[in-house]
Structure to design on (205 residues):
């Protein structure tokens, strides 16, 4: 939810409309993990939540105290964990909405939530952002093969499946790439101030 006069639009943008955030001028969200760790009420989670940020969304996932289940039956444990997450979701709904509004105005991105209890992980309502691309015939044939084989129902679903597959099998490489990009950003921020680089030196006459 957002305040009056501001709306969310997809297609890779943050706040849209007049006076809203565009992708090119989104506020930085490097401190989002720290902000949420300090903003969330004590006792919600067993520790600091996991905070994942991209251009469109901030996903906050916290770990709950797992419920105690006598006997340790796997089905009963799983049901109890799902119930614990459901209770947290309902009990914290109003406060999570208020926190999300603050974060959306601060960072210009939607906020989504999730929780983990024992071996059960659930994400609440998350953003599905359309991504437009142009594909040549060999690439389209890959998607059509997945559709024909019943792996996906459409080209867009097949493309999403491919992205998930790459993410699962290239997690280490993607992590290293993100860390390298972060290092470049830090070096840029620490660079020399070029404000007066073009000014001539004063000389005595």
């Amino acid at each position: 939810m957002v305040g009056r006069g501001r709306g969310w639009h997809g297609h890779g943008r943050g706040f849209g409309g007049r006076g809203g955030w565009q992708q090119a001028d989104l506020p930085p969200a490097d401190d989002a993990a720290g902000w949420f760790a300090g903003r969330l009420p004590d006792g919600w989670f067993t520790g600091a939540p996991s905070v994942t940020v991209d251009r469109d969304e901030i996903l906050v996932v916290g770990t709950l105290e797992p419920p105690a289940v006598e006997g340790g039956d796997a089905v009963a444990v799983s049901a109890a964990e799902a119930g614990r997450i459901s209770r947290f979701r309902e009990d914290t709904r109003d406060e999570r909405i208020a926190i999300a509004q603050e974060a959306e105005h601060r960072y210009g991105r939607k906020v989504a939530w999730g929780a983990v209890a024992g071996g059960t992980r659930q994400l609440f309502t998350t953003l599905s952002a359309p991504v437009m691309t142009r594909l040549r015939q060999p690439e389209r044939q890959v998607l059509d093969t997945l559709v024909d084989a019943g792996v996906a129902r459409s080209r867009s679903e097949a493309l999403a499946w491919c992205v998930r597959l790459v993410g699962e099998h290239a997690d280490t490489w993607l992590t290293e790439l993100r860390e390298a990009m972060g290092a470049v950003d830090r070096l840029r921020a620490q660079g020399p101030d070029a404000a007066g680089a073009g000014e001539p030196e004063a000389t005595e006459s």
Q: What stands out?
A: The helical segments are 32-39, 74-91, 93-107, 137-148, 155-169, 171-189. The radius of gyration is 23 Å. Residues 1-19, 194-205 have pLDDT under 50 and may be disordered. The chain has six helices and six strands.
